[in-house]
Amino acid sequence: MKTDRRGFLKIAGVAGTGLVAGKAASGKDMSSSAVGGGPAKEPFFTELFLDNTFIEETPGVFRRLHPPRKHRLNPIIRCDRWWENTYAQPYCTMYDSEEKLFKMWMRSGSDQKTGYLGGYAGYTTYLTSTDGIHWNKPELGVLEIAGRRDHNIVFTGFEPDTKTQPKQKGVVIPNVQPYQGKKGWLWSVLKHPNPRDESEKYVGVAFMMKRCGAHLCTSPDGIHWKRDEDAPFWQTPHDVSGKGDDALLHMIYDRSKGKWVLYRRIVPEFSERMIAVESDRDWQGVDRYNRSYACAESADLKVWKDYRFILAMDADDPPDTELYQFATHKFGDIYVGYMSVFHLRRPQGIDIHLATSRDGLNFTRVCRGTPFIPNGPLGYFDFMTMCCSQPEPVVVNDTVYVYYAGLNFPHEAIDPPFEQGGVGLVTFKRDRFASLESGEFNSGPGDDHRTSPARCRMVTKPFTVRHSRLYLNAATWDKGSIRVEALTRDWQPIPGFTQPQALGVQGDALDHPVRWKDNIDVSQLMGKEIRLKFYMARARMYAMTLTNEERKLNPVGSEYRDDKLGDSTPKLL
Fold first, then answer.
1. Tens-digit pLDDT profile for residues 441-483
2. pTM for the full predicted model
3. Using an 8 Å Cβ cutoff, are 34 and 464 in contact?
4. Same-domain status, 244 and 343
5. Residue 449 sits in which domain range?
6. pLDDT tens, residue by residue, 62-86
7. Under a CB-based contact definition with an 8 Å cutoff, are residues 315 and 329 in contact?
8. CA 27 to CA 38: how far, in whole Å?
9. Is 56 contained in some domain?
10. Contacts of 55 (CB under 8 A, 6+ apart)
11. CA 130 – CA 136 distance, rounded (Å)
12. Which residues, in sequence order, are bridge partners of residue 261?
């Protein structure tokens, strides 16, 4: 259900408050850029084929998920300093292209009283890296914790420590929760694209146990943080009831919408009313706490509206699963979501699954049931995994870096004797989340796929060509190939761009050029509405890109190949 915060609060008798900000990727996806006439507004757009929005038919072709490679040094960050204790959870990571520096805001601390640090159970530390693998933990001296400043703690949610909570308009004072130590941390950190001044260069959304909900924070450097105000801008009934600390948050700035978008954990029972009122202090909870997700949007950083319930496990999922945590970011205008799925059946592991969306609201699973990042065995550092927040993709030298939190014990373990967390890293080459892959089968009497490949085809829905060059992110094996034919809307081959005239793509590369004998690009098709038909033999296609710029081939090395014995040398046939 869509809810306008102002309209709802007017009815409820209270007024809304709060700001939030962020940053997101540039580019355009096929579905929005490829329709209509006129020149392209974006320099390129890439279709990832994570859903069927752009696909008309796929006879003989199936979608395959490609779990990324876990780094051999995992966990790349361990709890090895006096202030870190149990948790090393990368709640937010970014690559700062201006400084050429990886930056991470990591939750540290412990849920065990013996591990509290001066009464603090959870807080944010700041780390940096030049390669994304080896991380520095600078002793910043920003805050005094347990009488010491030789640490990298930058946020606790108690600066200054206000013991009283004055009543503010539109805010419900929450019930006191059972003591769990002082908890406060940053969930998402983004560079503000248009800060009013240097003090707002970084914007973060934070959780604070003393007043549950989503809080806004700003910083000039990502190290010295200031809360916007001592009140959350989004409180759910759960936040004010004192029943738990369920404010798992994730924030992006969506440039295509010109809006800030906040995602947070919720339960379906709040889908009709997501904003707390005074009577929710008496909320008694639900008989089954089904972890799910909602979101809200803001165009002006002041008024939040369009509160929506967006994502939960459903009847096609195993009955013992819940959506523990969710985060998303954009590759062009295609949203890629990471679902941390909690398996309630013991031993209660958590693994990470992939989802995708065209609008940031309606998400489709990618190869449902297959983990994108599988969890490790019980006792290993990533038995429970959580993808946390990367508001923008971290892509350096055509390699995607995804950081995740790991814990080596079950979710409901009580005082586990050897509990320990760590930061995991997976990497993969650009755009290679999943692929459309040709099947291996005989397609008719007398066919042998070694000599007469199965008739594997993929045909797109019609679109208008607005860029002059076409590239495929693709790989082949056993001397396979991909040939591309251009069709009219009513499926008729276009002269000069037919299958017999097409040059075959072979090998493993991120940017295979698509060409024909008499056409080195698709410039002759600009402004025309066409379909593309892909003739595939022993091949997989991860993505296609239309652009006006010439690209290098970008061959994929053996470290990132899905087929170690595949056709390694990219070429045109």
1. 655 555 554 444 568 999 999 999 999 999 999 999 999 999 9
2. 0.90
3. yes
4. yes
5. 439-572
6. 999 999 999 999 999 999 999 999 9
7. no
8. 17
9. no
10. 49, 436, 458, 459, 460, 461
11. 9
12. 252, 297
